[in-house]
Amino acid sequence: MAHDVNQMIGDKLKAIRTERKLSLDELSKITQVSKAMLGQIERGTSSPTISTLWKIATGLGISFSSFVEEDTPKFSKVKIDEVNPLLEDEGRYLVHTLFPTEPKRNFEVYAVTMEPGCKYTSPAHINGVEEYLFLHEGEMTVEIEGSVHHLKAGEAFRFSADYEHTYKNSSADPCNLFLIVHYS
């Protein structure tokens, strides 16, 4: 199924690029992702990192989940363990897309697992993006512009994602959270 996700991401990227009449060179310039990598993603032969997808989404001015959204029914039920995660930080940062954005909904919902020792730095997102974290297991810190915020299970945190931000799990146990990304 992981190949299916890569192919879905590639097909979406190619459709957006074609719709906007962009060459791979032009797309590379606006996303700061190499032409070779973009070609591999479009062909579904590369499993892009979360950071790479954020660069592409930011460069194109689209939501991160645009790459994996599907036609949605009036209701949906998702089992986290049945969703193939996107991985970062050598597999210690796992992101399960639960509900991607839709035309009438300007937010997306993720389940995130951060293994012990995980450190993930996200680039600044497009203007007006907010992130909402709901930590339900473990501990973590969020660093934004030199400001450090320690979170424990049962706590929630909201911030403007217009700035580079870093998530860290310095504990010996995994931490699990739900993340909502809201686009203005």
What would your notes on this structure say?
This protein has 184 residues and is α+β, with helices and mostly antiparallel strands. It folds into 2 domains: 47 residues, lambda repressor-like DNA-binding domains (434 Repressor (Amino-terminal Domain), Orthogonal Bundle), CATH 1.10.260.40; 103 residues, Sandwich (Jelly Rolls). It is built from 4 helices and 10 strands. The strands form 2 sheets. Strands 1-2-3-10-5-8 form a 6-stranded antiparallel beta sheet, with no helix packed on it. Strand 6 and strand 7 form a beta hairpin. Helix 1 packs across helix 3. It is globular, with a radius of gyration of 16 Å. The two termini are 32 Å apart.
Please supply descriptive tags for the structure shown above.
single chain, 184 residues, alpha+beta, 434 Repressor (Amino-terminal Domain), Jelly Rolls, 2 domains, 6-stranded antiparallel sheet, 4-stranded antiparallel sheet, 4 helices, 25% helix
Briefly say what this structure is.
The chain is α+β, with helices and mostly antiparallel strands and 184 residues long. The chain has 4 helices and 10 strands.
